[in-house]
Write a structure and sequence with these properties.
It is built from 8 helices and no strands. It is globular, with a radius of gyration of 22 Å.
């Protein structure tokens, strides 16, 4: 049954799920151990040490376990098609969907971080030095990866009023021009920002605060890399959609039938 619902993992779906659960459990155990140490040991590791893992084996194991759990969770969740999703077609589409699932998971992390900050600040009167910056750090990657996922799903805002009036050949011409504009923007952004991104990364520029995370040194290079991925995805979409018949668009296209069905089912359930 699990393999029947698989998009690309097939027989690997079950081992991937097992690895996801195992690394998630290991991460939670290590986190609980670090929290326990933080409560009862004066010189225990905190969030300051979590972004400075050099010479701290426990922190390194924790970060490796967390990264592995996110990797396997993204793979496992990407193996299932959502109700309104465009199914991936080819390796790069799969790559974009996996990163899209990672962005979804990271959104939940932002909620957890802010929830922790609210409880710590207003219940225990002990605000953190890192929650706002960590949520900003995570949100920057959510924003970038969501853009890549939106490109794969063809879900960026588009105006179809004039496009739908065009003949087939003119629509394809418009599609090519759109992709060429994306390529030009990507080239200009990388050309203008590469040296700055390289300098920030090599010196691992930090945020200049008490917690001092290396947000500029990581986000600026990631911005250029993901913009390049968005450009490649746009070219991939153009090639994949080249021989498809033109679609007509109506206001009814904006209606999410899946969500409407779920709402109706909820309303019909006995209370």
């Amino acid at each position: 049954m699990m393999q029947a619902n698989s998009l690309f993992l097939g027989r690997l779906r079950s081992p991937i799920k097992t690895a996801m659960i195992a690394f998630t459990a290991l991460t939670l155990v290590l986190y609980a151990y670090l929290v326990f140490q933080r409560i009862f040991i004066e010189d225990a590791y905190g969030m300051f040490e979590m972004i400075r893992p050099a010479g701290r084996p426990m922190v390194q194991v924790m970060l490796i376990s967390l990264s592995a759990s996110l990797f396997f969770a993204s793979l496992f969740l990407a193996d299932t098609k959502g109700g309104i999703e465009i199914p991936p077609d080819g390796f790069f589409d799969l790559f974009s969907v996996v990163l899209g699932r990672l962005a979804m998971i990271m959104t939940a992390f932002i909620v957890l971080v802010m929830f922790y900050e609210v409880i710590s600040r207003y219940v225990f009167s002990r605000p953190t030095l890192w929650a706002n910056e960590l949520s900003l750090w995570i949100a920057s990657f959510v924003f970038l990866l969501a853009g890549l996922y939106a490109m794969q799903q063809r879900s960026h805002i588009r105006i179809y009023i004039i496009y739908d009036l065009m003949p087939f050949w003119m629509k394809k011409t418009a599609d090519v021009i759109s992709v060429l504009l994306i390529i030009g923007f990507t080239f200009a952004l990388v050309w203008g920002g590469y040296n700055d991104a390289e300098n920030r990364f090599l010196r691992m520029e930090t945020f200049g605060t008490a917690w001092d995370p290396p947000i500029p040194g990581i986000v600026k290079p990631a911005l250029l890399i993901i913009i390049v991925l968005v450009c490649i995805q746009a070219v991939s979409n153009l090639i994949a959609d080249w021989n498809k018949m033109p679609e007509s668009h109506t206001p009814a296209d904006e209606i999410d039938e899946t969500d409407i069905a779920n709402i109706r089912r909820t309303l019909e359930e006995p209370k």
